[in-house]
User: Fold this.
Amino acid sequence: MTGIIFDLDGTLIDSLPDLHAVANRVLAEEGRPPLSMTLVRGFIGRGVPWLVGQILAASGEPVDRAQHDRAVESYERHYMTATDLTHPYPGVPEALTALRDAGHRLALCTNKSVKPTGAVLEKLDLAQFFDAVIGGDTLASRKPDPAMVHAAVDALGGGPSLYVGDGESDETAAHAAGLRFILFTEGYRKTKVEDLPHEAVFSDYADLPDLVARLKG
Assistant:
C-alpha cells in the first residue's frame, strides 16, 4: 500500500473561476477595481492570506494589517459558499476510485482552510475518497513548509507515499518532506514543466493509476 497525497486547487479541482469571482467581490467591498482572471491565477497556491495580500497590492495602495485581516475574513466568508463555478478536472473521480480500489490510502494537503475545503469536497462528491484532510489552518504553517506533508503522511499511518500537485509550493513541500512528486500539468503553476523538479508528469487523470503503479514498483 502506498499513500497518495493530493493538492486540491489546480490539481483535483479547477476553482479559478470561483477564486476570481470572490477576489473581485472583496475588492469591490474595499472600493478597489477588479482584477483579471489571469492576474488572480498567478496568486493561487499559498493560501488565502497570501492571495488577499496580493490582490490588494495589485489593485491599489498598500493596506495596513487591520485592513488585510478584514479582507481575509471577508474572502473566507464568501468562499464558503462559492462552489458553483468549481468542478473536478476530467477523470478525477474515476482515478481516485481506481487508486482506492488498488488499496492505496488517499489524503488531501491543501493551503485552503478546512471549512471551505470540506464544503467544496462535499459539493463535488469527493470527500468520500480521502482518509485524511490537512488544510491551511490545520497547522501553524502552510506549504511550501513540509510540515503539512509530514502531517498527511502520519495521518495515513506512515510508510511510503507519493505527492500529486500542480505547482511550485507543492513541489517544494513534497521534496522537502522526502516524497516523490508527480506533477499535474493542467493547473496553476507559473514555472515551465521542465524547470519544476518532478519524478513523473501527467496531463490526463486516466494515466494516473498506471503512473502510480510504476512509481511504487
Q: What stands out?
A: The chain has nine helices and eight strands. The mean pLDDT is 94.
